[in-house]
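Hi L., both proteins are below.
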Amino acid sequence: MTTGNDLIQRFEMFANPALAESWDHVGLQLGNPERPVKRVMTALDCRPEVVQEAIEKNVDFIFNHHPAMFHAAKTLDVRDPQIAMYQTLLEHGITVYAAHTNLDNANGGMNDWLATQLELTNVEPLQITGIDPISGRDYGMGRLGDLLQPMSPAAFGQWCLEKFQLNGARLIVNPADQKQLIKRVAILGGSGQDFWQLAKKRGADAYVTGDVSYHFAHDMIASHLTVVDAGHHIEAVCQDQLASLLKKWRQENDWDFEIITSEINTEPFKFIVK
């Protein structure tokens, strides 16, 4: 019999919670990890529509990237959709676990997966944060690497659309740099605008991240750093990657449970054109 604790303990050997940022809330979100696990679903987000999918597919353990309980609840008023979602999860005996910035920082984790999607070579951490207490290796936020071949900012923007299978993205580029070739690329999944100066300092010609604000974009332009705001949702790569890890560990440990990936698209933004 495999329990939620079995999965959690093995995963935390890969992405220790100690690797998470101090402000984050990773690990068990709600439910009982001592219960047997028969079907696991990997997901980027734990939203009401994802929970409904889990119920319909008889899932008893949701393994997601973004914490379901990122902000502490001050009341348990079930008229609030978020609180109602917690109630639904508990009513159906579904355990929820989140691996957020510990997965971002982990070697072989989120940002390595994103760097692989861009086919970057000579990849290294963008920022070395510390030493993994289990592996003894350096870990850090973001990645820095080389493109297979240099390309213009416009071509690089198209490359990102193709590799991340996006319908649109925001390209931030100084008009004077439109013919400059991009070779060295920094990438940080999620909201990474605070790291743009580090990307520039580390020699990146372009930076890929999400959630770039208006004034930050002006500063990037003034500093001649090309940036592709590919959105937060590119982190959905974690669904298949986490499923692959769980399948590997299932085989190694002779565990008996099913693994599926969420089919719900939780991207909140839609691109419209005139």
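That was the first. Here is the second:
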Amino acid sequence: MIVARGSLAVVNMSQDGPRRSSDVRELWRATSLAEVWLRPGDWYHPAVDALIQAVEDDSCPIEAAQRLGAARGTAGVGIGEALDDVTCLYRATGRSLSVEVVRATAIGWAQGREGTSMLPGVHDPATGLPTGDYLAERLRETYGRAAREGLDVTETHCLLVVDVGVDELDRWKRMARSAAVGRTLEQIFGEGHPMATMADGIFAVLCERGEAITRVAHSVRRIVERNAEILGLNEALRSPTRVQVEPLPATHDAAVELLRQLMR
């Protein structure tokens, strides 16, 4: 059964009356840790306070959001996790998250990530998900295990392909969309389901085949579209989102060719 863990739909925890920055910070932190943040010990950064101050003073939060995004990127936090965290601040304080704040956070994150080192060929920095090369290696393991156990991969596994691509998006909208979808897939499937970014707006997840796979595909479509709506990214996604169950071919070489087609 697929459950959207760490859902973006968090409870509005706003309070009436004046609040100290420390109170807002603790409220934000508690919400983020309960919903999206992976490691409690690395949540705080001085840029957190700057964004709180801007939000509470109703001043322009763009510079503060970009600074926090840069701090998250430098620290190795995934862009999806960084965007979800900022969403938690706005939810916890009862305010509406603007597209401009999402954009500033994403730009800052990209700037921060540029100065860090990553294992080449393993992760896509825009989504935080592995690349197609990684998925090809995981497929090699799947085919090898099936051969040892006398199983037919075409009957036991499949690829769930999610296509949200639309034309004529500017760079930051593509970045925000990629981050949102990547984070959503991580929330839905969690560990144990190899997945990857195949191309701009196209993602693939290695799944076990079975009667439930059609329901899984419907659930993925619904949750991806819901989270995009929450983040104000409806126009950046194909409508409706295309989610297809792609059968695996008989050999690993043929499966790699299938991945190449998805990456075009």
